[in-house]
Write a structure and sequence with these properties.
Helix content is 53%, strand content 10%. The protein is of the alpha/beta class. The chain has a six-stranded parallel β-sheet, with helices on both faces. It has a four-stranded mixed β-sheet with strand order 8-5-6-9. Helix 3 crosses helix 12, helix 9 packs parallel to helix 10 and helix 16 packs parallel to helix 19 (383-397). The longest helix has 23 residues, at 23-45. The radius of gyration is 27 Å and the shape is elongated. Bound molecules: iron/sulfur cluster. Iron/sulfur cluster binds at residues 266, 315-321, 344, 376-379, 381.
Length: 484
């Protein structure tokens, strides 16, 4: 259930504080997310029926999740009938063990990979390395991350935190066949990566992929990508292994039409995806000779059992919610300590990993609750609703200290607010202390309070009014002087 590649990372508040102190990171993020936000808005505005498409996407995903058992068995039956092999993995360790054993059975010590969130989630590259197998990422951004011994920080653009000069530096340092005099020109960098990867494509006997969608009615998988390297991985190696989360199902091909309209416009602001590859089992004389589908649970059935939390499983990983999130734009993806950063990560990761660690309990708080993520989500995931709900679960999951000051203060407030007379007494006491606070200068004073200090450290405390509402109302009603 753990995400091994991210173990040991600090929890969000510490990681975010460190990221905020890095002006180059903030500059890279801002330059990358600002244009894609406006381009997405333009691409979406072109479709008069966007709201209907969005509702259809939500309805299809909800229907599929409600009947997941049926569609998973249908998928298994169709993949098997088409000559593929289906394996079930309940957690990350099981999925990784399956891929290692299938790769060994194919006699390979090197694999080429299509960009895949599911294998990042399971920490597959680390598991393969431990078994003596080299994984080569073939997506350009994933390759940059891998060569830089880094971690992805965005769902769609894993190296979004790097600028051109940093990428040039990484290629010169880590790519033995990089041309002498390589500059930071994007076309030159892409050409260097293409040459570097070509040898790997031509010699690989095992390819590893995820899938954007799995079509139950025919047992077909669908991968959407922009560079064409994914298609090389899917067609050239003799053995293809696809690790796919169980929530990626669609019942039928006609459902895909909706998502082929929603996903490109939401992710890259394109009207149509550049490379859409589909395959069904194995086909003699064409593509891989062996196909294995590893269906990954890893916490998804637990999320599915939760009425509010399950909506996160509708996610099609478009990354639109990251690009509009004011928190993500300032701290980047690494602060979330998960392959799923941004708003979707804040609701998906604690459900997949559970809330036993402080790092996972902190994630639902990594948001201002502004609602921008909900507005842009092409499958209408109500992320703010899920965040608030998961904050409640985080509080319940956290073992309380016997004299927790916040809990004691809120208990006292609840007791006071339950009775109008108690409230009146408390307000008179507050009126008396008001003079003291104003005499001491409220801003400096509140910064030193044990409970309010954290709140007022980054905010101006409002000046305490000269009179309470209750006192003002009583005076107004009597037409006399204030009583406090
Ligand atoms: S939650 Fe919605 S907007 Fe965010 S990545 Fe998933 S589908 Fe896209």
């Amino acid at each position: 259930m753990n995400l091994p590649a991210y173990l040991g990372m600090p929890s969000f508040p510490e990681a975010a504080a460190a990221a905020l102190a890095d002006p180059r990171l903030r500059g890279n993020l801002s330059r990358a997310t600002r244009p894609i936000r406006s381009k997405r808005a333009d691409a979406v505005a072109e479709l008069a029926d966007w709201a209907e498409l969005r509702a259809a996407g939500k309805a299809i995903k909800d229907h599929t999740l409600a009947h997941l058992d049926h569609y998973l068995l249908q998928l298994e039956q169709k993949v098997t009938a088409a000559g593929g092999h289906v394996h079930w993995a309940s957690d990350a360790a099981q999925a990784n063990a399956l891929v290692v054993s299938l790769t060994r059975a194919a006699g390979a010590d090197q694999v080429v990979k299509v960009k895949s969130m599911a294998t990042q989630e399971t920490g597959l590259n680390e598991a393969l390395a431990a078994a003596g197998i080299t994984a080569i990422e073939t997506d350009l951004a994933e390759l940059i991350v891998q060569l830089g011994r880094d971690k992805p920080s965005h769902i769609l653009v894993p190296a979004i935190h790097r600028n051109r000069a940093e990428i040039q530096e990484i290629f010169r340092r880590e790519m033995p066949d990089a041309p002498a005099g390589l500059t930071d020109d994007p076309a030159e960098l892409a050409a260097a990566a293409r040459t570097h990867l070509r040898r790997a494509f031509l010699s690989a006997t095992v390819g590893i992929s995820g899938a954007n969608f799995a079509i139950a009615e025919t047992g077909s998988l669908v991968v959407l990508e922009s560079e064409g390297n994914g298609r090389m991985c899917l067609t050239l190696p003799r053995t293809l292994i696809s690790v796919v989360g169980i929530e990626k199902l669609l019942p039928a091909w006609r459902d895909l039409e909706v998502f082929l309209a929603l996903l490109p416009r939401s992710s890259t602001a394109e009207r149509m995806n550049p490379y859409t590859s589909t395959w069904t089992g194995v086909t003699p004389g064409d593509g891989p000779r062996e196909f294995h589908l590893v269906l990954l649970d890893n916490g998804r059935t637990t999320a599915l059992a939760d009425r509010t939390g399950r909506q996160a499983l509708r996610c099609i990983r478009c990354s639109a919610c990251l690009n509009v999130c004011p928190v993500y734009e300032r701290v980047g993806g690494h602060a979330y300590g998960s392959p799923y950063p941004g708003p979707i990560g804040a609701i998906l990761t604690p459900q997949l990993r559970g809330m036993s660690s402080a790092a996972d309990r902190a994630l639902p708080y990594a948001s201002t609750l502004c609602g921008a993520c909900y507005d842009v989500c092409p499958v209408a995931i109500n992320i703010p609703e899920a965040l608030v709900y998961l904050r409640g679960r985080a509080v319940e999951a956290h073992p309380q200290a016997p004299f927790d000051p916040e809990r004691l203060a809120l208990g006292a407030a609840a007791w006071t607010l339950r009775d109008p007379r108690r409230l009146a007494v408390a307000q008179r006491a507050a009126s008396a202390s008001r003079r003291l606070i104003n005499a001491a200068g409220s801003a400096a004073w509140t910064k030193r309070l044990p409970l309010l200090g954290g709140w007022t450290r980054t905010r101006e405390a409002p000046a305490v009014p000269p009179e309470s509402f209750r006192s003002w109302w009583a005076r107004r009603s009597r037409g006399g002087a204030p009583d406090a």
